[in-house]
Design a protein that fits this description.
heterodimer; A: 145 residues; mainly alpha; disordered N terminus; B: 769 residues; Rossmann fold; DAD/Ost2 (chain A); transmembrane helix (chain A); endoplasmic reticulum (chain A); transmembrane (chain A)
Chain lengths: 145, 769
C-alpha cells in the first residue's frame, strides 16, 4: 500500500528514461552511472535493513548460508570426480539443501514479525525442526550406501 | 460439544463397519479366494515374505517366471502392499491368532477401505468442517469405483494406495492450514508409504506442485505454503529414491521435474516477498527492474539447456505409461502392449454413472460450494477433482483416483445443502409457532431481520433442549458456529445476506428429495458391489433352469498341472495367465502379467501365430514342455485366447516382421469360420483351441463367435493333448519330442526344400528357421 502520487512518479520517470535511452545513443552514457547509483543505493539499503534483524535470525541465516555453500562444494566435487556412486552424491547434496530448507522453515516460525505464528512457542518450533532433521538424516544415512 | 464428538466418533465407527461389510459379497457368494490375475502375484510374494523373512524378500531373484530371463522381484515390485499384509500377518500370529496368509491377503482391502474412509473424513474436515467430513466418508465407504478395486479378495496395490493417497493429501492440507513442521514431516512419511504402494504416486508429486503454483499465481502465497511444500520436496524425493523400484528415477525422469521446477519458483517468490518486506516500496521497484532485466537472460539460458537435454531423449524423459496418459493416442501408435490392456482404454459415458453414480450430479454443486468461501484447502479440492476428471477420461482404471475427489466434493455439496435446508426449516417452523400470532406485516426487511435476531437467540435455547433429527445433528456444529457469527455481527442488512432462508414447503420437499437421492445411491452401490464387482474371475457362475452352475476350470487346470507335471517343467501361455500359473500351479512360465519384456512376449505371440512346426521350434528353443490355451467356445466364455488372438498377432508382428496382421484377416474382418484365411486356419492357436472341438456337437459350433468353425477335422503333428478341463475352458498340450530317425525320403525332401527356400526371392526371412 502507500500513496499513489509520490510513488509512481519516479517509476514513470525511470520508465520514460529507459525509453528515451533506447532512442538516442548519447543518452546511454548518462544512464549507466544512474543505474550504478541505483544499485549502490539498493545494496546499501538492503544492508541497513538486514542489519536490523534480530541476532537469532541472523544465526539461522548463517546456518542456511553454510549449508548452501557445502552443497555447492559437493556439486563442484562431483563435477571434478564424476557422479559415481550417484546415491552418495544425491544424499549429500539433498541433506545440505534439506537442512537449509528446514532452517528457513524454522526462521519463518520463529520470526516475531510473522503474524501467523505469533502463538507458536519458539521451543515447539525448534523441537519440530529437530524432529524433521532427525528423520531427514535417518533417511540420508540409509541412502548414503 | 462433547456429545457431538461422541456422536461423530460413533458415526465414524459405523462408516468403517459399512465400508468393510459391503466388500464382503464375494466371500459370501463365492468363497474366500484371491481374485483376478495381479493379486495372485502379490499373494505369491507375500507367501514368500512370510516364509523367508524380509531380507530374503528384498534380495529375491525369481527364476520361475520369464524363463530364461528371470525377474528381480526386490527391485521391480512396489513393496507397500506386501509389507503391509506381511506385517499384519506377523502381528496377528504373534498374538497367537492363527490366520493364514491367504485370509490376511483377502481381507486387507476391506480393512484399508474402512481406514481410507476415515482419512477422507479427516481431509474433508480440514476443508469444510465435520458435517461435510462425515458425509464424504459415508459416500466413499460405498462408492462403486473404489469397491471394484478393493473388494475382499482383490489383493492389489490400489487397496492400500487409495488410503495412502487420501492420507497424504490430508496431511498436506493440514500442514497448509496450520503451518506446523511436524505435520510436514508426517506428510513426507505418508508420501513415502504412497511411493511404496503404487505407481500412481506420480499423481501426488505433480498435483501438489500444481496447487502450489496455483496459490502463488492467484496471490495466496503465505509462509505456511512454503512450510507445506519445500520440506515435502526434499524429504519426499529422498524417500522416493529409497524405494528400489523407483530409485534414481526420482530425480531423473520427467514425472518429477514439475516438483523441482515449482520448488525453484517457490524459493524465488519467497525471496521476493522477503526482500519486499525489507525494502521500502520505491527501492523495491528499482530492485525488481534491475533483477528482471538481468535475471530474464539467465533464465532463458537455463531453460534452453534443460529443454535441449530433455528433448534429446526419444521419449523426452517420460515413461511409456505416463506418456499414454498425456497423449491418449500414444500407446496405440507405439506400445501395443499398453494399448491392449482393457483397463487402459478410455471409459465410456455410462461407466461414469456406473462407477460414481449420483456423485456425477453433486460434484458441480460441490465445486460451487468450495468457492464460497475459497480457501487454500478448497482450491486444492477443486484442482484435485479437475485433474482427476481429465485422467479418468484417458484411462478407465484411473476412475479410481477420481472416486475420492468426487466423494469429497459431493460430501461438501450435500452438507451445505442440508445446512441451508435444515436452517430454513428450523427458522420457518419457529416463526410459525413463536411469532405467527405476534408479527403481522413481516414483509419489511427490518422486521424480518429483527425476528431473525430474536428467533436465533430463542433457537439456541431450543436446540440445546430439543431432540433434533440425526441429519440436523451432523450440521448442528456448523449452524451453531453460524449463529454465533451472526449474533456477534451487529449490522442487520448484512445478516439478511449471510443467512439465506427458503420457504418451508420447499425446504421440506428438498430435504426429502435429497434423502431419496441418497437412498438411490445406496441401493445402486449395494447392487454394484453384489452383482457387478464381486466376481473373482477365476470362478465363473451362470444361472440356468437347473440352478447355479459353477465353472471352476481354471483351478482344475492349475491343479492338474501341479499334480501331473515335474516341478521344473516350463509352461507357455499368453501373458494373462502367468501370475496365476506360477502362484497356483507352481510351474515356471515364459511370460506373465508384468509385461516388462516386449520381445519375450512377442516371441510367444509369434509362436501362437505360426504354423505347428515353426511354433514347435520356437517353444523348443525356450525349453517349453507344456502349452496352455484358454478356449470359451463350448460354454460361451468371451475372454478367451481366440478373442485375444489379434493382439498376439499385433504384438508378435511388432517385433518379427514376418507375422503380418492382414494375413489373418479376410477382407479386414477377423473370422475363424470357413471364410477364414489359410494362415489363420493353420496357426497354432486355432489348432490348439479347436482340436477335436467337432466331437462335442458334431458341427463345431463356436458359442462365442456364433458360427461353425472353418477347419473341423485335423490332426496335431507336433503337439499332443494332455488335458482339457470339464467345460473345455482350459486346454493343455505337451510338445512332442523330436523323432529319433528321419527316414530317407523325408531327408531328401528336407534338403531340397531348404535349397529352394534360400533361392526364393522376396520372401521375408523367418528368424526361427
Amino acid at each position: 500500500a502507500g500513496g499513489g502520487g509520490p510513488r509512481s512518479d519516479p517509476h514513470r520517470a525511470g520508465f520514460t528514461h529507459c525509453l528515451s535511452s533506447k532512442r538516442s545513443e548519447g543518452a546511454r552514457f548518462v544512464r549507466m552511472p544512474k543505474a550504478d547509483g541505483d544499485a549502490k543505493l539498493l545494496i546499501q539499503s538492503l544492508n541497513k535493513a538486514y542489519a536490523a534483524t534480530p541476532t537469532n535470525l541472523k544465526i539461522i541465516d548463517l546456518y542456511v548460508f553454510f549449508a548452501m555453500v557445502t552443497a555447492l562444494v559437493q556439486v563442484g566435487y562431483m563435477g571434478v570426480v564424476g557422479s559415481f556412486p550417484f546415491n552418495s552424491f544425491l544424499s549429500g547434496v539433498l541433506s545440505c539443501i534439506g537442512t537449509a530448507v528446514l532452517a528457513v522453515c524454522l526462521r519463518i516460525q520463529v520470526n516475531k514479525d510473522n503474524k501467523e505464528f505469533k502463538d507458536l512457542p519458539p521451543e515447539r518450533a525448534f523441537a519440530d525442526f529437530v524432529l524433521c532433521n532427525l528423520v531427514l538424516h535417518l533417511v540420508i544415512m540409509n541412502f548414503l550406501g | 460439544n462433547a456429545f457431538g464428538g461422541v456422536l461423530c466418533a460413533f458415526t465414524l465407527i459405523l462408516i468403517g463397519v459399512l465400508a468393510f461389510s459391503i466388500r464382503l459379497f464375494s466371500v459370501i457368494k463365492y468363497e474366500s479366494v484371491i481374485h483376478e490375475f495381479d493379486p495372485y502375484f502379490n499373494f505369491r510374494v507375500t507367501q514368500f515374505l512370510s516364509k523367508n523373512g524380509i531380507y530374503e524378500f528384498w534380495n529375491w531373484f525369481d527364476d520361475r517366471t520369464w524363463y530364461p530371463l528371470g525377474r528381480v522381484i526386490g527391485g521391480t515390485v512396489y513393496p507397500g502392499l506386501t509389507l503391509t499384509a506381511g506385517s499384519i500377518w506377523w502381528f496377528v500370529n504373534a498374538l497367537n491368532i492363527p490366520l493364514s496368509v491367504e485370509t490376511v491377503c483377502v481381507f486387507t482391502a476391506p480393512i484399508f477401505s474402512a481406514i481410507a474412509s476415515w482419512a477422507t473424513y479427516l481431509l474433508t474436515k480440514e476443508a469444510k468442517g465435520t458435517g461435510a467430513g462425515l458425509m464424504a466418508a459415508a459416500i466413499l465407504a460405498m462408492v462403486p469405483s473404489y469397491i471394484s478395486r478393493s473388494v475382499a479378495g482383490s489383493y492389489d496395490n490400489e487397496a492400500v494406495a487409495i488410503f495412502a493417497l487420501v492420507f497424504t493429501f490430508y496431511l498436506y492440507v493440514k500442514t497448509l492450514n496450520t503451518g506446523s513442521l511436524f505435520y510436514a514431516t508426517l506428510n513426507a512419511l505418508s508420501y513415502f508409504y504412497m511411493v511404496c504402494s503404487w505407481g500412481g504416486y506420480t499423481f501426488i508429486i505433480n498435483l501438489i506442485p500444481m496447487h502450489v503454483l496455483l496459490c502463488i499465481v492467484t496471490g495466496r502465497y503465505s509462509s505456511r505454503l512454503y512450510i507445506a511444500y519445500a520440506p515435502l520436496v526434499i524429504l519426499g524425493t529422498l524417500l522416493a529414491a529409497l524405494v528400489p523400484v523407483v530409485g534414481f528415477n526420482a530425480v531423473l525422469t520427467s514425472e518429477h521435474f514439475a516438483s523441482f521446477l515449482v520448488f525453484i519458483i517457490l524459493h524465488v517468490v519467497a525471496f521476493v516477498y522477503y526482500i519486499k518486506g525489507l525494502l521500502t516500496p520505491r527501492l523495491f521497484k528499482m530492485a525488481m527492474t534491475l533483477v528482471i532485466t538481468v535475471g530474464l537472460a539467465v533464465c532463458f539460458a537455463v531453460v534452453a539447456i534443460l529443454v535441449a537435454l530433455v528433448a534429446s531423449s526419444p521419449t523426452k524423459g517420460w515413461s511409456g505409461r505416463s506418456l499414454s496418459l498425456l497423449d491418449p493416442t500414444y500407446a496405440s501408435k507405439y506400445i501395443p502392449i499398453i494399448a491392449s490392456v482393457s483397463e487402459h482404454q478410455p471409459p465410456t459415458w455410462p461407466s461414469y454413472f456406473m462407477d460414481i453414480n449420483v456423485l456425477a450430479f453433486l460434484v458441480p454443486a460441490g465445486i460451487i460450494s468450495c468457492f464460497l468461501p475459497l480457501s487454500d484447502a478448497s482450491s486444492f479440492m477443486v484442482l484435485y477433482l479437475v485433474t482427476a476428471v481429465y485422467f479418468s477420461g484417458v484411462m478407465v482404471r484411473l476412475m479410481l483416483v477420481l472416486a475420492p475427489a468426487a466423494c469429497i466434493l459431493s460430501g461438501i455439496a450435500l452438507s451445505s445443502a442440508f445446512d441451508v435446508l435444515t436452517r430454513s426449516m428450523k427458522f420457518q417452523l419457529s416463526k410459525l409457532f413463536d411469532d405467527g400470532p405476534a408479527i403481522s406485516g413481516n414483509g419489511s426487511p427490518n422486521g424480518s431481520s429483527a425476528s431473525t435476531v430474536n428467533t436465533s437467540s430463542s433457537k439456541n435455547e431450543k436446540t440445546e433442549k430439543s431432540e433434533a433429527a440425526p441429519k440436523e445433528k451432523q450440521s448442528k456444529k456448523n449452524r451453531r458456529k453460524d449463529k454465533e457469527v451472526t449474533e456477534s455481527v451487529s449490522v442487520k442488512p448484512k445478516k439478511e445476506k449471510r443467512l439465506s432462508v427458503l420457504p418451508l414447503e420447499a425446504s421440506i420437499v428438498s430435504t426429502l428429495l435429497l434423502i431419496a437421492l441418497g437412498g438411490f445411491y445406496v441401493v445402486h452401490c449395494v447392487w454394484a458391489a453384489a452383482e457387478a464387482y464381486s466376481a473373482p474371475s477365476i470362478v465363473l457362475t451362470s444361472r440356468s433352469r437347473e440352478g447355479l452352475h459353477v465353472f471352476d476350470d481354471f483351478r482344475e487346470a492349475y491343479a492338474w498341472l501341479s499334480h501331473n507335471t515335474d516341478v521344473d517343467d516350463k509352461v507357455a501361455s499368453w501373458w494373462d495367465y502367468g501370475y496365476q500359473t506360477t502362484a497356483m500351479a507352481n510351474r515356471t512360465v515364459i511370460v506373465d502379467n508384468n509385461t516388462w519384456n516386449n520381445t519375450h512376449i512377442a516371441t510367444v505371440g509369434t509362436a501362437m501365430s505360426s504354423p505347428e512346426k515353426a511354433a514347435w521350434e520356437i517353444f523348443d528353443s525356450l525349453d517349453v514342455k507344456y502349452v496352455l490355451v484358454v478356449f470359451g467356445g463350448l460354454v460361451g466364455y468371451p475372454s478367451d485366447d481366440i478373442n485375444k488372438f489379434l493382439w498376439m498377432v499385433r504384438i508378435g508382428g511388432g517385433e518379427f516382421p514376418h507375422i503380418k496382421e492382414p494375413d489373418y484377416l479376410r477382407d479386414g474382418q477377423y473370422r475363424v469360420d470357413a471364410q477364414a484365411t489359410p494362415t489363420m486356419l493353420n496357426c497354432l492357436m486355432y489348432k490348439l483351441c479347436y482340436y477335436r472341438f467337432v466331437e462335442t456337437d458334431g458341427k463345431g459350433f463356436d458359442r462365442v463367435r456364433g458360427y461353425e468353425i472353418g477347419k473341423k477335422h485335423f490332426k496335431l503333428t507336433h503337439f499332443e493333448e494332455v488335458f482339457t478341463t470339464h467345460h473345455w475352458m482350459v486346454r493343455i498340450y505337451k510338445l512332442k519330442p523330436q523323432k529319433n530317425r528321419i527316414r530317407g525320403k523325408l531327408k531328401k525332401l528336407k534338403s531340397s526344400s531348404k535349397t529352394s527356400s534360400t533361392l526364393a526371392a522376396g520372401r521375408k526371412k523367418n528368424p526361427w528357421q
